[in-house]
Amino acid sequence: xxxVIPAAGNGTRIQPLAFSKELLPVGGRLSGDxxxxxxxxxxxxxxxxxxxxATKICFVISPQKxxxxxxxxxxxxxxxxxxxxxxxxxxxxDAIFRAHPVIPADExxxxxxxxxxxxxxxxxxxxxxxxxPSSSSPWSSPSTSTPW
Length: 148
Prior knowledge:
Layout: E1 2-7, E2 25-30, E3 36-40, H1 41-51, E4 56-61, H2 66-72, E5 80-85, H3 92-99, E6 109-111
Parallel strand pairs: 1-4, 1-6, 4-5
Antiparallel strand pairs: 2-3
């Protein structure tokens, strides 16, 4: 099974970084020689895909993301790694189409979500800041205490 990780975006919301956002260190792990080292955020996705059955991962990267190629090389401890280039960030569908030539037609595919599960690109609803007797929201009722 293949895993596809779209990684061509610029990460403009978290700039300035001197490296690709997928390599942002979050937590740590022990290396093969027992020393602690930082763990890139993308490693968590690689780990989860491997646990789900992926044996090969295809990173879809932009031409400026050579640091991802240098970080992972052609494999990591648990999966083989391939790369395809998306000349400019053009969305998830384009990233999947770019990966298509390296994945056999009969091979199952996992797609790594570019956003965390449950998150939205639109602003989330906010609880009302003032109570309104005409509102049907239970949080705006004067007799209802705040659930948090």
